[in-house]
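For reproducibility, we list the full input for the histidyl-adenosine monophosphate complex.
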Amino acid sequence: MIQSVKGTHDILPDKTGLWRQIETALHAFMHKYGYNEIRTPIFEKTELFKRGVGEETDIVSKEMYSWIDQGGDNLTLKPELTAPVVRAFIQHNLGGQSAINRLYYKDAAFRRERPQKGRTRQFYQFGAELFGSSYPEADAEVITVSYNFFKELGIKDLSIKLNSIGSEECRNDFRKELRNYLKPLLTNLTEISQNRFEKNPLRILDTKVSHEKELLKNAPNIADFLTNDDHVHFEKVKELLTTMGIPYTIDPLMVRGLDYYTRTTYEITSGALGAQDALCGGGRYDNLVESLGGKPTSAVGFGAGMERLIIAFENSAKYTSNDSIQIYLIALSENALSQSQSLANTLRNDFSVSTDMLRRSLRSNLREANRSGAKIAIIIGDEELTQNSVQVKNLIKGDQQNISINKLTEYLSNLDL
Ligand code: HAM
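The corresponding predicted structure, in tokenized form, follows.
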């Protein structure tokens, strides 16, 4: 038997209702904040991610699904959505049409990571990107949008980790200082960190290994390297969040795994998740539009994992599926079959209705009706056919009534289905 590819998951009918509920909430929520949806292709030129996300990042250097197609183009299933949205923003000159663009998306993303709970190789991300403002109120808005969405869904134990990694110039100095600090400790670091030392030393700060965390205790702090402008910007972001009642903690060790960030970076975690506790991550990326060929445009955004949100939601709120049908129709004879099929179609103007397809006995059909979650079973036999009526069985209360077909819709409308 052919199984699904490792790290990919089917979303079965018992869960699709939950997904739709969150997706519907997302669209309504984004509308309230004035964000418009954007959809980009599932694959892009590999170059976009190499230049956009950064060649030295884990995502680009080892996790992308890339291939050369029949025409010789090097293509990649998108591992994240910011670079494609920026590409579309530039290509369609959205910045020329409006000084501020607020965009959001929900789409599949692909990374060949080691699968575990909350980490898959195909996953869904939703997120938002705000283009056109270099002001701290844009950072504060994006953080607020993500946090308030989780809050509105009732996700428990939310916390925001906030940092500023400054502009490129101060990061160069910081990188130098960090390497100086780490050099004598290099042999005590894990192989992964040793590999990161030259290429991407900031990522070492992000380690989950406890003895490395210990070694990093006295490492230089990025906050000491910020320029005055970076500092003023970060202070205002914090002030705005405080004013809006958004709680946060400063985490100078939080370095995001993508190269495009400037100044503000943040992550939101939830205690309702396991080891992979990041619900969302984001930040400011003031150089990306220009480096991908657009006019210099400031931007800030976030991306959030749907699977993780679903896990957190199920662990936080009591969810009951509302996907069950309302009425299950049972025909007791071949003569009653066509009547039941046409009655089902009429009732579907007002209700959700399912019918038997296996010509089963009344007993097994009632069992099936209960399994389906229907509240009402409608039974039609030869006697009902001649009387132009049906038996309506309330599957919750157990009582049964003979109802004339003419009065059926009215009768059902008065029930709490
Ligand atoms: P990211 O931190 O790589 O950022 O991913 C954002 C979120 O996607 C994570 O916090 C997590 O919830 C989810 N996620 C990432 N990888 C996986 C995986 N393998 N399985 C399940 N969920 C996963 C970005 O992608 C940036 N584009 C965010 C951004 C938007 N920054 C600015 N704008």
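Residues 13-32 form the longest helix (20 residues). The pocket of histidyl-adenosine monophosphate is lined by residues 80-82, 111, 113, 118-120, 123, 125, 127, 129, 257-258, 278-283, 301-305, 307-308 (CB under 6 Å). Both points were considered when choosing residues for closer inspection.
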